[in-house]
Amino acid sequence: MKKHPAKRTRHLVLVLGDQLDRHSAAFDGFDPAADAVWMAEVPEESTHVWSHKARITMFLSAMRHFRDALKKEGLTVHYRLLDHPENRGSLSGELTRTLKQLKPKRLISAVPGAWRVQRALKKTAQAMHTQIDIRPDRHFLASSEAFSQYAAQRKQLRMEFFYRQVRKKTGILMAGDKPAGGKWNFDAENRQGFGKEGPGSVPAPRSFPPNSLTREVMAAVEKRFPDHPGSLKRFDWPITPKQARLALDDFIDHRLHRFGPYQDAMWTGEPYLYHSRLSAAMNLKLLDPREVVAAVEKAYHTGQAPLNSVEGFIRQIIGWREYVRGVYWFFMPDYLNRNTLGAARPLPRFYWTGETDMNCLRQAIGQTLEYGLCHHIQRLMVTGLFALLLGVKPQEVHAWYLAVYVDAVEWIELPNTLGMSQFADGGVMASKPYAASGKYIQRMSNYCVDCPYEPGQSTGEKACPFTTLYWDFLMRHESLLRKNPRMQLQLRNLNRLSPEERRRLKGQADRVKAFATNSENP
Ligand code: FAD
Ligand code: SF4
After folding, report:
1. Angle at alpha carbon of residue 419, lines to 413 and 420, rounded to 5°
2. Res 5: pLDDT
3. Where are the domains of the chain?
4. CA–CA gap between residue 324 and residue 376 (Å, rounded)
5. Domain 11-135, CATH 3.40.50.2000 — does that match?
6. Ligand 1 mean position to 12 CA, how many Å?
7. Helix, strand, or coil here: 36?
8. Closest-approaching ligand to the CA atom of 265
9. Quick check: bond before 333 cis, omega within 30?
């Protein structure tokens, strides 16, 4: 009997771990009779940076749930498991194998979340003489092209103006052509600390305990990556679109109303406070930002949440989140190598263990390892600030941030780390370095209460290493910072120091740097 060759796949739709969106442009025109989906769990994506176990689990579990949903719909899915004995280890290796086997006429993908991955896909397709169609990612409100046009018209980029433009264009939180409530920004009412009394009882966010599929992934991750950082004990993230919507509802019902005033506050033992915990769900595309913003705006119109909280939250999504993506694609790939301040120290070893007697760092890093999440100010003004003041090489700081958070994807992580937190892009993301002394941390948290150091002291036995390094940072970069009008107040304070005070500060800072670099306590 004559054998009929298997029907050739027409289009192979590539679905990467951060593209779990059935409404993605990659699925436009998908014909289940002719097309198939390709997904692969490859160790390289977990070892490219030394990923937290919770980050790996988050991606793999969400991918397996997405695969099952597609199969339930009747789609053909070619899926490579992490522990398959023939797993080639990298996206290129796995894709090459599939291309040899299926010989599809065309590959289709949405824009990946990292420049490195986009290049790998293009190179693999080229090597295998297969056309690849990389389609815009509709998840975002602003396209990369629109951002490029916006950026090309300006000498200096600022998130605030981009954000206002998005609001005007979309009508989000607008009353005609004016911002709702008559102001674009409610920062003056926000940015509060809790004071000595603390936050009181904070409603615990809805938890999504791991189901059997997630537990399978957790076991595979523990087996394959036993020495990777972080714990899986607290893993309770939303990993399906349905769970992500429940997490959104829970945030709006219980925490949104206090988000605004306390978005910058930190408190021991309260990892989430009034934050949404939605970043990973959005970055993996389980949740559409438009849906998030519409639900939050509705909470304002129905009186469920005040405008300062609603505007503060919406600004993060349609302002910062969209803006950093624009910056990433506009400036990559050379953005990755920027180092305006010439910082060259290695990342202290305690970033991977939390073992330091500086309580703020111990709390923020400990929380990172335990939960895989820290909020913005813990990232910017504790771990990020210390690395900036110490002068750690920005690329090492970047590799840490990309590794340790469940929500870490390069397009959003890199501009935040390299640009906003380390000022390595020379002012693209931030108009001045986020340099502060330990007094900022004292004001915004209770960390200093249980610390052997004194945030107000810059020299002496009890001097806070942040405060010492803050003055040292200003002295080290004085000539560069003089050109920045927004640094003048800080430099005026520096000018008041006598040569003797400067000399003592420098001596203390040298000791802190030596100890921190050797990962011992200063
Ligand atoms: P919420 O405080 O509830 O904020 C709501 C949403 O707004 C977030 O889910 C996020 O989507 C968006 N958002 C908030 N801040 C930012 C910001 N600065 N840039 C872009 N979007 C923002 N966020 C990531 O999603 N992935 C990262 O890898 C990442 N790396 C960061 C690295 C550094 C050094 C810093 C300073 C910030 C980083 N952020 C990153 C931004 C921010 O810290 C997280 O989005 C936030 O803490 C996630 O928790 P949440 O969902 O509870 O956020
Ligand atoms: Fe951190 Fe300094 Fe406060 Fe200690 S005293 S918690 S090191 S800011």
Report:
1. 85
2. 52
3. 11-135, 144-205+255-331, 349-517
4. 14
5. no
6. 33
7. strand
8. 1
9. yes
Q: How far apart are the C-alpha atoms of 366 and 234, rounded to whole Å? A: 13
pLDDT number for residue 522: 41
Element (H, E) at 290: helix 289-301
Q: Which pLDDT does position 145 carry in this prediction?
A: 87
- Write down the pLDDT at residue 187: 86
Predicted TM-score (pTM) of the model is 0.96
Q: Running DSSP on this structure, what letter comes out for residue 28? A: T
CATH of domain 349-517: 1.10.579.10
Spatial separation of the C-alpha atoms in residues 74 and 76, rounded to whole Å = 7
3-class secondary-structure state, position 147: helix
Distance CA 438, CA 435 (A): 10
pLDDT at residue 518, rounded to an integer: 76
Cα–Cα distance, 497 to 281 (Å, whole number): 49
> How far apart (Å, rounded) are the C-alpha atoms in residues 72 and 479?
63
Kindly state the DSSP code that residue 2 receives in the 8-state scheme. P
CA-to-CA distance for 198 and 266, rounded, in angstroms?
A: 9
Check residue 155 and give its pLDDT.
Answer: 83
- For residue 519, the model assigns a pLDDT of 59
Q: Which residues of the chain have pLDDT under 50?
A: 1-3, 520-522
Alpha carbon distance 512, 53 (integer Å): 31
Ligand 2 atom 8: residue of nearest CA: 438
Task: Show Cβ contacts of residue 47 under 8 Å, excluding neighbours closer than 6 positions.
Answer: 225
Closest CA to 336 of 410, 431, 421, 420: 410
Give the distance (Å) from ligand 1 centre to CA of residue 404. Answer: 13
CATH fold of the domain at 144-205+255-331: 1.25.40
Give the Å distance between the CA of 357 and the centre of ligand 2: 9
Nearest by Cα to 305 from 354, 251, 265, 352: 251
448 lines ligand 2 (CB under 6 A): yes
pLDDT score for 520: 44
Task: In whole angstroms, give the CA distance from residue 8 to residue 420.
Answer: 48
Of the candidates 110, 93, 267, which has an alpha carbon nearest to the alpha carbon of residue 196? 267
Q: Is the CB of 442 under 6 A from ligand 2?
A: yes
Cα distance between residue 288 and residue 26, in whole Å = 16
Neighbours of 341 (CB within 10 A): 19
What length does the chain have?
Answer: 522
